[in-house]
Amino acid sequence: MSDATEGTPGASGTPAPARRRGRPPRTESAGTRDRILDAAREEFSERGYDKTSVRGIAKAAGVDSALVHHYFGTKEQVFEAAIEVVFAPALEAPEAIGDGPLDTVGERLTRFVLGLWENPGTRSPLLAVVRSAVNNEAAAAVFRRLIAAQLMRRIAARLDLPDAELRAELAAAQLVGCAMLRYVIKVEPLASADPERIVARLAPVVQGHLTGS
Prior knowledge:
The protein is 69% helix and 0% strand. It has 213 residues and is mostly helical.
């Protein structure tokens, strides 16, 4: 039996070039990486972290699984790369809360976070992140790393208080808990309540965590 790397004989009897695995050819579309990320977000959203595989992501993206490994590495690394894009708007939160007086920071942050969940374009991938983090420690570690290092510590730095990190994390817990009940578990009447009513109730609590005595 001939080596698989030699290819399959063509009609003329000359071996045809073998399909290379792993590294993409130079002619590979520039959008391949983005296509893989899009497929990964869909797979994680629909199946969760545990039931998603690199092979499944590759199939959904229409590429070889070796190509997914080439671009991203392990499944955990694919997950992190996929959700970093999701968290890009959330990383603007420190700037959002900084644009105004501290006595209204709770409302600005609450509106910002709820806006991400209310937007259909960001809600689906956020659901994928939360569901995966709840059920899998590897996904949870990625989630903590992004929340702690890239979001909450940056917010805490704006507070200029001795327990700023704890305050920022308590505010985050309030907002994440509300999002879990409203968008993931869908507990009524919270799930169908008007967003403005939620802001009116939640913002003062977030404000208290961030700047209260």
